[in-house]
Structure formats: structure tokens, C-alpha cells
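[agent] plan:
  1. take the single chain provided in the ticket
  2. run structure prediction with default settings
  3. attach C-alpha cells to the ticket
  4. add a short note for the reviewer (M.T.)
[agent] executing step 1
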Amino acid sequence: MATDIRPLNGTKTHPLSAHALSELRNIARRPCPCQGINPGVVNRLEREGLVELVDLRSPFPTHKGRPIPHLQITDAGRAVLDKEGE
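[agent] step 2 finished; step 3 output follows
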């Protein structure tokens, strides 16, 4: 787990919200640009080691295909989704 990343707000970690799980499901389908996801959700998913950052081609016309950070699901993230599906 990425324990060196601090929470954006406070120190207490709550269970993943329905919104965070929904974003994780979207990321499982395909990597998503970081800037399209709530920063608090990105922080939480990274802290838990559920996603990793990868540079992929931008889908946004303002970047004209340059590489930008995307979130890609990890094996730990897939395990969380499998557990939630039970």
C-alpha cells in the first residue's frame, strides 16, 4: 500500500464511498485521466494502493494527444471490486 500519501482532509480513513467504488469500477474498464476524477477520490484510491498512475495519451483536444496522468487499476483494486461483488 502507498502509505506515504497523506489524506487531503483530516487523518481518519472511512470505508470507500459508493462514489469512490463507482469510480474504481470505471477505472477497471479502462484507465481514466486524473483530472476527470474528484481529487479526494484520487487521493484515497492511491493511498489504498487500488490504482496507479500511468502516462497515456490525452483524450482532451487542448492537450493534442500529449501524455497526461491516468489512473489504472491494480490487483488490489480488482480484489476490492471482487469483494464488493459478493
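[agent] step 4 note for reviewer: The mean pLDDT is 87.
[agent] ticket updated
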